[in-house]
Write a structure and sequence with these properties.
mainly beta; 6-stranded mixed β-sheet; 3-stranded antiparallel β-sheet; 0% helix; disordered N terminus; signal; FCGR3 protein
Length: 117
């Protein structure tokens, strides 16, 4: 599979989020995919800083909010991704989340924002 290169030229482990919005919210039925070198079924998952699944699959659907990372045998530990249950509550008790595309953005880009209630 695709694996980006760090500035030093070394392969890294990436944690991909689908749908690709940030912040990621649990009610979107978020899928996390760990991309890196090594056997796919040798992925170790961490949730909230604790080892959570060892020798697990490289992809799963999130059922609990939290902060996730994955580790692959060759490329190592991924950056963390937070999956939120509630981003904020306004004065009327509505749960509001303002999402942006989970990709690099440059000044001048056209951006679609999502306000979720």
């Amino acid at each position: 599979g695709w694996c980006p290169l760090s500035p030093a030229g070394a392969q890294t482990t990436q944690l991909l989020v689908e749908p690709p919005w940030t912040p990621a919210v649990q009610w979107d039925r978020v899928t996390l995919t760990c991309q890196g070198s090594g056997t796919p079924d040798a992925t170790t998952w961490y949730k909230d800083g604790q080892r959570w699944r060892q020798k697990g699959p490289d992809q799963f659907i999130v059922t609990e909010s939290g902060t996730y990372r994955c580790d692959r045998p060759v490329t190592g530990l991924s950056p963390s991704v937070s999956i939120l249950n509630v981003e904020g509550v306004d004065g009327d008790g509505y749960r509001l989340v303002l999402q942006v595309p989970a990709r690099a953005l440059l000044e001048g880009d056209t951006v679609t924002l999502r306000c979720r209630v």
